[in-house]
Write a structure and sequence with these properties.
With 393 residues, the protein is α+β, with helices and mostly antiparallel strands. Helices cover 34% and strands 23% of the residues. It contains 14 helices and 20 strands. The two termini are 24 Å apart. Bound molecules: uridine-diphosphate-N-acetylglucosamine.
Length: 393
Amino acid sequence: KNAVLPILAACLLGEGPCELENCPEIKDVEDTLHILRKLGCQVNQSGKTVRIDAETAAGYEIIGGEAARIRSSVLFLGALLGKMRKAVLPKPGGCAIGKRPIDLHLAALERLGAAFSCEGEAITAEGNRLHCGTIRLGLPSVGATENSILAAVLLPGETRIEHAAQEPEIDELIRFLNLRGGKLQRMGDAIVIEGGRCLHPVRFRIASDRIVAGTYLFAAAAAGGELHLQNYAADQTLAGVLLQMGGICRADHLGGMHFQMKHRPKALPGIRTAPYPGFPTDIQSPFMTYLATVEGSSTVIETVFENRFMHVAQLNKMGASIEAMGNKAVIRGNAKLRGCQVMATDLRAGAALVLAGLVAEGETEISEIYHIERGYEKFIEKFEKLGASITKI
Ligand code: UD1
């Protein structure tokens, strides 16, 4: 999800059609394709392959509907400024995991000469005076880094983004733009863009989603068992955590991995979420389900978002013993989870509840599953394949 969304926005830029393979069939992608169509792009989808031709795109307004619902619609700010020199967007929506302001996005684009005005729920951006330049982000924001790249790639001259986010999904965006003829390079915590080059059509394969993979891995860890993931090799951080938990990870020769929870699962004394290469905030909630059920106590400190413990109340309803205070949660493990009615409050919190439902005694009913469908493709079928008894009503 986090790799494909900025790449879809980047399809607006340059010439001719782009064909994306391995595009996840999730609600956030569906909504983003709607936005592209509204802007005038020709969009054809056949299963997991999507073809986008932005030649006919002349719109710059994405007010209302899906644009107001998904936070990633904010990425059209950079892309539309780059292409049309103008953009009208709703103030972003998305998961209610904290305040999630966009001040860093606006400040970064202002450094490139953009001007903003806000009226009601809309943001209008003017980019007639856009120029290359140096941006220094106050925080390594993923979205602000991507927006800066999208605005700068067509601007002649060198743009430098300092203190940029280092998430692998940004490198996927860079790889996509470079394959199209762009010249972008990561240099430590900076990204250097030699802008103004012609971007041409390309066929590109979207990388597997490391957060989705992590969710399935923690599901296997929590429920006990084995899992084979195709097209996914765990990064160092996740592989390290899985190992400490008593899991066994083995890479296969086809670029996939095999995971087995052979030993008794162990609690990890402490986890602190952090920007990449730290422990991903997006995995924190599924990981907490695991911690709630294993022997021993642990602490989770959430440093990226200020309101990312909404799953705690739901897990406690199922019998977990977790105390959340500010950005710290103390988990007393060994809980015998019981199925009951719970509610998905956001995307990853929903995933945590699915995991809890797998482990719990009895039946668990999760409402508001549209949150989960935003980011997990065919999750019912996939968990069924792993032996779960799970149905969508
Ligand atoms: C992206 C991911 C999301 C992930 C997050 C952190 C996508 C589509 N979403 O979200 O799944 O959880 O990175 O890895 O890729 N902030 C500000 N001002 C801003 C922007 C951000 O204060 O203008 C703050 C946020 O409130 C948050 C922190 O910076 O506390 C990190 O946010 P950011 O990296 O921007 O996350 P997103 O790009 O929204």
